[in-house]
Amino acid sequence: MNAFLFAVVMHQGAPDKPVHPGRKPTAAATADTKPVTAREARAAFIRVGELLGKVNGHPLGMSGLPAIDRPVTRAEVVTEMGRLYKAAEPTFKFTPVAVVYDRSKLRIDAALLPTLNRLVTRGMVARLGPLAVGPQPTLTPKQLGDAIGFFTSRVAQMSHLPSAKWTPMLQKG
């Protein structure tokens, strides 16, 4: 339960309104509204694969995203997360309770619907997040960062069994 609360808190992200309403947005703030490029997403997923592979002791391989400067699509991100999920699956210590959601809300190519469904059902992707139901074919840096954070926190949770010594819910009487 504590890991779930942590994931929810981490997934909330920063407020969408500027901190100082009277000021003009900075270049960094306006850059956050531009779509993430395939090159940037590839670099992020390579780093995620390296870190998860190091922690789990199981190599996850290189990113399948192209290293080009065009916006990355949600479909490409789902494909990459599906690849990482399959690579990390042997390290999972338990099968989580399936996430209940309305499958008709998912907005993705029909060919990727089974992959996205598996990721949402296992709690790897937010069921109502921009990756699953977003109206745009691309993601902003904040949206991609939230999706990767959500994914990695769930992989970390499923790859390790909690200790009764440190988990109050597992302690006896």
Walkthrough of the structure:
It is a single chain. The protein has helices at about 1-10, 25-30, 40-55, 75-90, 115-120, 130-135, 140-160. It is mainly alpha-helical. The protein has one domain (about 35-160). The protein starts with a helix and ends in a 15-residue tail after the last helix. The model is unreliable at about 1-15 (pLDDT under 50).
Précis, in short:
The protein is mainly α and 173 residues long. 47% of the residues lie in helices and 0% in strands.
Write the layout of secondary structure elements.
Elements: H1 2-12, H2 27-31, H3 38-56, H4 74-88, H5 113-121, H6 130-133, H7 141-158
Helix pairs in contact: 1-7, 3-4, 3-7, 4-5, 4-7
Q: Give the overall shape.
A: globular
- Our count of helices gives 7
N- and C-termini, Cα separation: 18 Å
Helix content: 40-55%
Poorly predicted segments:
1-16
Reported for the largest beta sheet, the result is: none
Tally of strands: 0
Total domain modules: 1
Secondary-structure element pattern, one letter each: HHHHHHH
